[in-house]
Design goal:
The complex is a heterodimer.
Chain A lengths: L1 H26 L7 H13 L5 H4 L1 H12 L1 H10 L3 H6 L1 H28 L1 H9 L2
Helix pairs in contact in A: 1-2, 1-4
Chain B lengths: L1 H10 L1 H23 L6 H20 L12 H6 L2 H11 L5 H6 L1 H25 L5 H12 L3 H8 L4 H25 L8 H11 L2 H11 L4 H30 L1
Helix pairs in contact in B: 2-3, 3-10, 3-12, 7-8, 7-11, 7-13, 8-9, 8-10, 8-13, 9-10, 9-13, 10-12, 11-12, 11-13, 12-13
Classes of the chains: A mainly alpha, B mainly alpha.
């Protein structure tokens, strides 16, 4: 049943969001801390677990795959409702600050990705552990 | 006739949005294949078209939700809103490899903190270069360069003026839009072609919308890895902005 997959996806998102809000309150922050990321982790765990195979395989799986495939169209709709006019109106200071932050962050990607490969061996050890 | 059209379109706004976005994507892929011979990804063009339309919508209606402020296209707001965006982002994790996530876990966490601090420092430095000397104002602009959510959250917490908060939102919007457009263009040069670098990228950029769209236009397979770290970024930013980062700026100015 397709709805089983959709329900699993929804349950993961709601659970992740609840934890994210809770984390925000614990940390005293007015924001959801990683709710979506935690939800993704739940879904990855469910996909890799035998216990949830009834919710992730066959027709149920296509319920999740449909929403995964709708991702780009949803992102296009998201782009179409951004407040681009306000960004353009922000003036030189806002544009300079935004452009500079992006440029420096882009430049840091290769440097930090190398830390990733450095941590490779640790990750492999973890995986081989029973 | 116009009234009839409006009634039907408004009553079925989400369905209209599906059709409009579908046609936009079809046209964008056509353009990508015919004009650029597939060099520019169709979804990159579709996102750029969306942003252009959003700019026009904002200018024409004076609203702040792009084309969604046109009554006939209000469904775009629903389809591209936070709820559907998060739902679809989580769905992309279907089939993501747990081992890849573990491999880049440490680099991912470091990149979140590094990303928040670097963007803040750059934003604050730009504010200083523009002649701001008040620590509250410098912090608010720095926080805006983190994301357009961290800017106002920090600004309100430390008592910045309404004008400074608006400015910080604008800086965050510029960042988000630039990540959407720039990512597919620079991906090759910054080695953004594997799950590890995607996680680092998500952590460094942090703007969920920017990362989501930027990676979609680069390689949809990387989306879950980048989105995973990016969604922690705003929370960390809201945590550091009004506290440690503000205290440091205050001590310096």
């Amino acid at each position: 049943m397709i709805i089983y997959g959709v329900a699993l996806l929804s349950a993961c998102l709601v659970a992740g969001m609840l934890i994210g809000e809770g984390l925000g309150i614990i940390l005293g922050v007015e924001a959801n801390v990683g709710g979506v990321g935690i939800a993704m982790l739940f879904l990855v765990l469910a996909c890799n677990s035998e216990r949830f195979s009834a919710l992730t395989e066959g027709a149920a799986g296509s319920g999740v795959k449909f929403w995964s495939a709708m991702y780009i169209p949803i992102v296009v709709a998201m782009a179409a409702q951004q407040n681009v006019a306000a960004a353009v109106d922000g003036g030189v200071l806002a544009i300079t600050a935004g452009v500079a932050a992006v440029a420096v962050s882009f430049a840091l990607v290769p440097a930090l990705s190398r830390i990733g490969t450095g941590a490779d061996s640790d990750g492999d050890k973890e995986e081989s552990a029973p | 006739m116009m009234e009839l059209l409006e009634t039907v379109f408004v009553r079925n706004n989400l369905v209209v949005a599906f059709a409009v976005v579908g046609v936009t994507i079809w046209l964008s892929y056509l353009l990508a294949n015919k004009l650029t011979a597939g060099r520019i990804h169709g979804s990159a063009i579709a996102i750029a078209v969306g942003l252009l339309a959003a700019w026009y919508g904002g200018v024409a209606t004076g609203g702040n939700r792009g084309v969604a402020d046109f009554a006939l296209l209000s469904g775009i707001g629903l389809m591209g809103g936070g709820m559907m965006r998060d739902f679809a982002i989580v769905a992309t994790a279907f089939g993501a490899q747990l081992s890849e996530l573990k491999k880049a876990g440490l680099a991912g966490v470091i990149s979140i903190f590094a990303g928040v601090i670097v963007s803040f420092v750059v934003g604050a430095a730009v504010a200083v270069a523009f002649g701001y000397t008040d620590p509250t104002e410098i912090t608010t602009i720095g926080a805006g360069a983190v994301t357009y959510i961290v800017g106002p959250v920090t600004g309100e917490a430390i008592g910045a003026s309404e004008a400074m908060i608006t400015l910080s939102v604008a800086a965050g919007l510029v960042k988000s839009i630039l990540v959407m457009i720039g990512t597919p263009l620079v991906a090759r040069y910054i080695g953004l072609n594997n799950p590890q670098s995607a996680m680092v990228f998500g952590g460094l950029m942090g703007t969920t919308s920017g990362v989501a769209a930027g990676l979609a236009a680069t390689d949809p397979k990387l989306v879950p890895y980048g989105a995973m770290t990016a969604t922690f970024y705003t929370g960390v930013g809201c945590l550091l902005g009004p506290s440690i980062l503000f205290f440091i700026v205050e001590a310096m100015f």
